[in-house]
Amino acid sequence: MKLKVKYFGLIAEFVGASEQSVIAKGLSVQDLRHQLETEYPKLKTITYQIAVNQKITSDQYLFNDGDELALLPPFAGG
Amino acid sequence: MSEKKMKNVFVQGAISPEKIANSISHHQVKTNIGGHDIFLGQVRADEIDGKIVKAIEYTAYEEMANQTIHEIREAAFEKFDLTCMHIYHSLGSVNVGEICLFVFTSSAHRKDCFDATRFIVEEIKTKAPMFGKEVFEDETHVWKENK
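The joint structure predicted for all components is written out below.
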C-alpha cells in the first residue's frame, strides 16, 4: 500500500526529507517502523511516536487507503 | 462553550510584548472578568556541552498541533469556569530572551484562571507536536526535548 509519510524535527534530518510516498511492505504501523528503521538505522537510536491522520496511534494499527502518517520525535513546544 | 471553531495558534517568529499588552487591553470591556492569568514561555540561553544557545527554531505538525490545542482548549473550558482563553505559539526562529508561548486565561475569580493556565501549558508541552532546534552561536544545533 502506498502511504504518505511526514517527518519532523530530528527525524526529517535523519531521512533528508519532510515528506515521502512510501510503499508499505506490511500492513501495520509496527511493520512500517521496521521498514523505515531498516532504511534509516538512526531511527533506532531515538524514541518517536507515529500519528495516523493526526492522532497518535499504536503499533497494531492496520493501514487504510489514503492514511497520512507522521513520525514525531520528542515534543519541545513552550 | 463547546464546538467552537478551531483556531490557528501559530505566529511567525517571537511573540512581541506589544501583542501581549494589546491582548490585555482588549479585555477591559469584558467587565464580568475578575482575574487574568498569563504564562509566557521565554527562550533560555542554555549551555550545552560548553556552547550557548542563541535561538530556537520552532517547527510543528501544524494541523495536528492546532487540532490537539483545540481539544486542550475545549477540555479547559469544560474543567474550569473561564470567560476567555487565548493561546499563541511561535514558529520559526525565536532568539533567547524572546517569548515563544503566550497563554492567557480570564475568569470571574482567580482560582479558575490560575488552575486553567497550568493545565493548558502542561498539556501543550506533552501533547502538541512541536519541535525545537536549539541553535548555537557557531550555527551548530541540537534538538530540544521537553522534560
